[in-house]
Amino acid sequence: MSWCDPVDSDKHSWHRYSRFYERHFATIGAVASILEYGVLRGASIRWLRRMFPQAEIVGVDILPQQPEWPTGPGITYLTADQGDRPGISTMLQTLDRRFDLVIEDGSHLPAHQANCLAETFPWLRAGGLYVLEDLQTSHPQHSLYRTHCAPGTPDSLHLLLLLEHRRALGQSLRRSDVEGISRGGLFTQADVGRLAEMIAEVDVFHRATMPLRCYACGTDDFDFVAMTCRCGADLDIVGPDSMTAVLRRGPAPARSVT
After folding, report:
1. Is the pTM for the entire model greater than 0.85?
2. Strand spans (E) along 92-227
3. Each residue of 178-187: pLDDT tens digit?
């Protein structure tokens, strides 16, 4: 695999995830099967095709296949609603394959992120990577969290921060941890326990630098003192923006629950 930046995607120009991904993708080994939630205009699928030219790529979106989406051998599109957890489960059972790489870049709603994480991570092969993009939307200060979640609802961000913290301290997951994360209903206790066993590594990136281009006007004409674009867009240097997590599946249960 030779690295290339997703230059036509906000992964690179706004969020600046690409160098973070480069470091992790260098460790993944052979990639034969990829799943991405969220196609939008197809920029990420084009990037993945350049990165992994031999891989089978499945793009999942709530929309049916659009004319601008890239096509070709090894690219398949499926229609699914991330809010329909049983439907996601059925889709994965129908595909019936182990994925080397999963990228969740869909609706960004906290409940949808939780649904896809709980249902899809078990289909990742040992050593494979699960990328949860735009994790900032599960931050309690983000507008999508405040709009769609009751205050104090635990979500994917809370779960991953918990797992990373326990790993960093060399501690086992506690029963109170499982009960606390499952309290709001996005994850069951079984979900939390299963994910804690399967997730061997958690690495979270939070952009603290300027984007390369403005998402609103596409230029790099920035006011570096006001931290805004000349068009008026906030460049989101402070606050919940441009967070992503890379999760690696372990070959065996990572931590027990005590």
Report:
1. yes
2. 99-104, 124-132, 199-206, 222-223
3. 999 999 999 9
